[in-house]
């Protein structure tokens, strides 16, 4: 069953076509990687799904309902940015509880949900820590937890581990895959790293100049690149 349907979405910044009549359908529980070089429109596309940018044209629907008129907080999406954008003046618990308080959940339920999700990301017992006392990897775990605690229908991850070193990035990648499969949460994962996309994705969308260059299973994209561009890009493992 398809959950997310992006239909001929474009985004212009002046004369720049950041996203150019892009279409994609994502199935329930699928992890799709948007892979492409810097400037290919990945972030702009993700931001439009999350409600942080408005399409110039096109339609985005979730479970058959058009969402482009909805602000981010009314969308069934949760977004994790490359720079974690945590609230540094709040401890980990408060970062996670904030959105639940806005939803007016009772305190014991908030406590339970926060503890559950901290456990899920491997940060049990970290609720009282201030976020600036945490390592970069731990901060990204908190950012992921802050999205997950609101139980989004679709998780949007924009190069969430790009600022971390290779070893940590690979570890967090495995953890995200594990969490994604346990929760069966539909996920769009943006990356410019071929290795990351090949390791994570159920399907890869290779982007170039705001358009789709190829869509397919990682093994197919790897073995049978549809264009010289895909072959060149996938071939240069980082
Ligand atoms: P990616 O995430 O793949 O690196 P982006 O979506 O960030 O690509 O950018 C796609 C194109 O849109 C680039 O040419 C970029 O310079 C341009 N762009 C992105 N955001 C803005 C903005 N707010 N204002 C003007 N141009 C932008
Ligand atoms: Mg980007």
TrEMBL record:
Domain spans labelled ABC transporter: 4-234
Annotated keywords: ATP-binding, Nucleotide-binding, Transport
Transmembrane regions: none
Domain of life of the organism encoding this protein: Bacteria
GO terms of molecular function: ATP binding
Sequence similarity: Belongs to the ABC transporter superfamily.
Protein name: ABC transporter ATP-binding protein
Source organism (scientific name): Devosia rhodophyticola
């Amino acid at each position: 069953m398809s959950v997310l349907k992006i239909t001929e979405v474009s985004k212009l910044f002046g004369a720049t076509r950041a996203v150019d009549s892009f279409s994609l359908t994502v199935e329930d529980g699928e992890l799709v990687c948007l892979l492409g070089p810097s400037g290919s429109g990945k972030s702009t596309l993700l931001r439009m799904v999350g409600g942080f940018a408005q399409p110039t044209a096109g339609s985005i629907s979730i479970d058959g309902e058009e969402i482009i008129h909805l602000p981010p907080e009314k969308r069934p999406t949760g977004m994790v940015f490359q720079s974690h954008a945590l609230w540094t003046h709040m401890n980990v618990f408060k970062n996670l509880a904030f959105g639940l308080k806005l939803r007016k959940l009772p305190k014991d339920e908030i406590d339970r949900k926060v503890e559950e999700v901290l456990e899920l990301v491997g940060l049990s017992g970290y609720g009282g820590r201030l976020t600036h006392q945490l390592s970069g990897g731990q901060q990204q775990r908190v950012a992921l937890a802050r999205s997950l605690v609101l139980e989004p229908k679709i998780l949007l991850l924009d190069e969430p581990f790009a600022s971390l070193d290779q070893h940590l990035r690979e570890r967090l990648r495995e953890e995200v895959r594990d969490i994604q499969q346990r929760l069966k949460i539909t996920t769009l994962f943006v990356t410019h790293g071929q290795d990351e996309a090949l390791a994570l994705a159920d399907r890869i969308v290779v982007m170039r100049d705001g358009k789709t260059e190829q869509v397919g299973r990682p093994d197919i994209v790897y073995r049978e690149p549809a264009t010289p561009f895909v072959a060149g890009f996938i071939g240069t493992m980082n």
